[in-house]
Amino acid sequence: MTNNKTYFVANWKMHGSLNSVNSIKNVIKLSKKSKYKNAKIVYCPPYTLISHFVEKTKKTKIDIGAQNCHFKKKFGSFTGSVNANMIKNIGSKFVIIGHSEIRSIGDTNKSINLKIKSALKANLKVIFCFGETLKEKRSKKTNKVLNYQIKNGLTKIGNIKNIFFAYEPVWSIGTGIIPKINELDKQVRKIKQIIRKNYKVNNAKVLYGGSVNSQNIVTLKKISSINGFLIGGASLNSKNFIDIIKKTIN
Ligand code: PGA
Cα angle at 126 between 204 and 28, to 5 degrees? Predict the structure, then answer.
């Protein structure tokens, strides 16, 4: 890892009840220690808990994010949906867009592009997810797929300074399998190259997500091209999440 900030984004997916809000108290404690000042923690709980997390983390450096948003900017008749302005309005600073679990139920590169645009307009920071499936990996299409997802997700977006790139190989999410370290390093460097070439940005932040846990973090943290992690299952339990942070920053 570099000496800059390392991002630890907790993606809680469809987990968490009111009781869970208090469970993050030790993470809050850790975030206040000067030793961990370079650990940037972002919690993305389900919509139902965002306000509670915002309240709980008030006066800390922890930020809160949502896991998705609708692409429409204004209020409207979209049952079950929440737009970027609504997310911003309740104190979220981030939103995850393009997660494969939402791509798999209908999100397209086009809808992802519209969502990113409306999130940026709402002054949210975007955690833009992309990654290849196992089939695509096996047929050696990873580079092509990532190129396509990145370029199409960012169509007509000029300023990418508020975008964090989250490389999440679909075959790695929730499976306990992570990429080989040298392959992952190479892939992240390629992603940075795509960003540099297309958007003339040299310091884009690229996170890795997929089965990060308190064991494999010891290896993953050695990859200097990675700026942080998007963590699902292992972020639900504060002890595991703290372990990951402590082992990364020591
Ligand atoms: P996982 O999920 O850590 O449980 O694999 C990561 C993600 O989907 O963001």
Answer: 95
Alpha-helix runs per DSSP H in 64-180: 84-89, 100-103, 109-121, 134-138, 142-153
**How do residues 40-76 score in pLDDT, each as one tens digit?**
999 999 999 999 999 999 999 999 999 999 999 999 9
Pocket test of ligand 1: the residue of 94, 130, 167, 231 to mutate, having most ligand atoms within 8 Å of its CB, is 231
For residue 178, pLDDT over 80 is answered with yes
In the three-class reduction of DSSP (H, G, I as helix; E, B as strand; rest coil), residue 247 is classed as: helix
- Please name each of the domains of the chain with its CATH number: 6-249 (3.20.20.70)
Mean pLDDT of the 219-235 span: 97
Task: Find out whether the beta carbon of 176 lies less than 6 Å from any atom of ligand 1.
Answer: no
Q: Is the CB of 216 under 6 A from ligand 1?
A: no
